[in-house]
Amino acid sequence: MPRFETDPEIRALGEALALLRRERGLSQAEAGRRAGMTSQGWGLYESGRRPGLFRPDVQRRLVAALDASPEDLALARSRQQAAPERPTPMLGLNASGRTFLPAPGGVRRLQLSNDDLAPWAASGVVLEFDPQQWPRRDQGCVIETVDGTVLVRLYEGADSQTLTVRGGEGGLGVVARIARSDIRTVSAVTARLER
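That's the Helix-turn-helix domain-containing protein sequence above. Prediction below.
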């Protein structure tokens, strides 16, 4: 069976689709779920390895999952073409309106001083978090707000306007929605270290 070769134009359109998804703060799994497919299926479109991305019906289905339009996809494609080549892109998530931009730094540590996330993590537990990684559903996340407040919560999901998290005063049963405009950075918790 011959190996599938990706057309540069399809790959570029897939990269524009990935850009739209990241701007909305969605993982491939979340976007795929919204479009009625797996994260792997979504990833194949983004990498240009699944045919059909130039078909209008496929484009409408994919961008609708991102609360966008085919015109938004075309604009994202033109932004990519106009953008100068970036040296080494930084990874991470800093909020800038509805878009999350790269956050500086590597893995960081934070010690919990309360039991807001018990039994997931109790007071005294040290969390390692990575500003270069977006959290998955039910994964811990560290959120820095624009006013400098640091929140540690369990990530539930996101849409174009808000982040949905669990935890805080009252325990893990408390579900909160945080406006993206109030968020500076979102980082995935990668380890819980008990002392």
